[in-house]
Amino acid sequence: MAYRKTKEIVKYIYNRSVRYTRRNFLKTAGLGSMALALQSFIPRLSTYRKQPNILFIMSDDHAANAISCYGSHLAGSVSTPNIDRIAEKGIRLNRAFCTNSICTPSRASILTGKYGHHNGVFTLDDNFDRNQPNVAKHLQKAGYETAIIGKWHLHTEPSGFDYYNVLPNQGLYFDPYLKESGKEWKDRKEGGEVSKGYVTDIITDKSIDWLKNRRSDKPFFLMCHHKAPHGLWEYPPRNEHLFDNVDIPEPPSMWEDKTHRSIGSLKHGSNIRKLADRMSNIGKRGKVWPTGKLETSGLDETEITKAAYQKYMKDYLRCAAAIDENVGRLLDYLDQTGLTDNTVIIYTSDQGQFLGEHDYYDKRWFYEESLRMPLLIQYPSEIKPGSVANDIIINTDFAPTFLDFAGISTPQDMQGSSFRKILEGYTSRKWRKSMYYRYWMHMAHHNVPAHYGIRTERYKLIFFYGLSLGKVGKTTSKTLDNEGPDLDLFKPTEPGWELYDLKNDPQELRNVYDDPDHKGIIEKLKVQLLHAKEELDDTDEKYPELMQVRQLYWDT
Ligand SMILES: [Ca+2]
């Protein structure tokens, strides 16, 4: 047996099917016989033992609002026909969320199936402990050939991969360095050899090369990780004139009156006006903005914000268009080589990105546009074309789901759960109805205060506790354009609470925390929040400083 004794397989399938599969449960309940019940599951055995290939394509900061199949204020301006192909042939998940909306922590959670406080990656600066278990190691043991190509950003040498070829840190858009397995490894931004060309094309070329040269007798697990469309949004020259003479629509929340916000969030974050300054000034190293300086002379404040938004969106969408082209190349390769039917194809992004919503760019906040990961999955044997799911999925669920496809039960140390059955259209009654979020990197880079909270299907409760708790590392000082740190920014900020009713206010334009009508729901959500923290082992008792803040502000 490749990975499990027959008896164990049958027991495993029987248990999971009884637990999750309404259709099969009804069948077996009517027959009332264990033997017949098992018989009805036997055809599934071959499917489970087949171990499909897994192609995981992840971009960086690609907001669902910028993917046409999700629909948004950008509909009509944005077209991602190749990424949409995955949704057309498979499923679109509308509520896939990250547990900490920045690159390094989200990637660590995807790999380990754990929150940052369990895998040790709280911030962009934390080195990933390569000796801990991860999904690639489990898949290797289960007989998979594994590879990661593209953005890594976990600083230490990848482990669990038969092959890797990864960018140091963020990587470069043009002529990037790449660090390949079998050669001397150097941590963090050191090391690597130059590949000539545009990074998105290169990552796809190397992914296709690896697919061509892989061992044919093993299923594969390939993580194809794009750098784009991460700032500073350097698009390929071929897309330079995309969106010429087009006015990109502004999101309705770009001009919102933020007076509804708590003091915890009100004055923080990076707005589009700040981006205008960065785009129009010469940086500290004497460099102009890489896609050209934003000209603002003669413009008033509103016009400057509008001009910066247009430039931001056009640069960003030109990068995203290159992602879409390259997703198409990978999908075409699978089609041409007959691999499509036996490959689970996933498209996602490490987290979302504000595209002017709430007058923000970047991510980090627990607000929807930053929290939400696009998630599209195609696997014709199990997923009906054009499916849509609204269940709450989080990034710690990815690893258990991949392992489920490989026939492996979720390891005890993983905190997420497999959502494989949701892809087939069945949701267990036990499936989570809420998710816990935590952002640790207090006021580093884009001035976002540390916070945590809970999002249910309807409500979102956020506690901005405003403390760095020693989680800001010594090299967290570099911003995107290499500006130095202002350590004063890492001082505590004033705490505050916010509550959003996502049913009546999906764009989070009205914080109703102080509305007396919501007193009851706030009490319930605080109990749920503490329960989630307890269950996930992220209790505040570990941080006396935070407990002090809680004592003062919990009931305010
Ligand atoms: Ca990212």
In CATH terms, what is the architecture of the domain at 55-234 and 323-427? 3-Layer(aba) Sandwich
Instruction: Indicate the CATH topology of the domain at 55-234 and 323-427.
Output: Alkaline Phosphatase, subunit A
pLDDT averaged residue by residue: 90
CATH class of the domain at 55-234 and 323-427: Alpha Beta
Please indicate the percent range of residues in DSSP E strands (runs of 2 or more).
5-15%
Q: What low-confidence regions span 5 or more consecutive residues with pLDDT below 50?
A: 1-7, 9-48, 474-482
Cα gyration radius (Å): 23 Å
Major sheet details: 10 strands, mixed
Figure out the total of helices.
15
What is bound: which ligands?
calcium ion
Described by the principal axes of the CA atoms, the overall outline is globular
How far apart lie the N and C ends?
59 Å
| Number of DSSP strand runs | 16
How do the strands line up in the largest sheet?
7-6-5-4-8-1-9-10-2-11
The residue fraction in helices comes out at: 25-40%
CATH homologous group name of the domain at 55-234 and 323-427: Alkaline Phosphatase, subunit A
Task: Provide the structure class.
Answer: alpha/beta
Explain this structure to me?
The chain is of the alpha/beta class and 556 residues long. Among the domains are: 1-49, no CATH class; 55-234 and 323-427, Alkaline Phosphatase, subunit A. The protein is 31% helix and 14% strand. It is built from 15 helices and 16 strands. It has helices at residues 6-20, 22-31, 34-49, 81-89, 103-112, 116-119, 135-141, 199-213, 272-280, 301-336, 368-371, 398-405, 420-424, 519-535, 544-553, and strands at residues 53-59, 91-93, 96-97, 145-151, 163-167, 177-180, 193-194, 220-225, 343-349, 375-378, 387-389, 393-394, 434-439, 451-456, 459-464, 496-501. The strands form three sheets. The protein has a ten-stranded mixed β-sheet, sandwiched between helices. Helix 1 crosses helix 3 (34-49), helix 8 (199-213) packs parallel to helix 10 and helix 9 (272-280) crosses helix 10. The chain is globular. The termini are far apart. Mean pLDDT is 90; it is low at 1-7, 9-48 and 474-482. The structure holds calcium ion (CA).
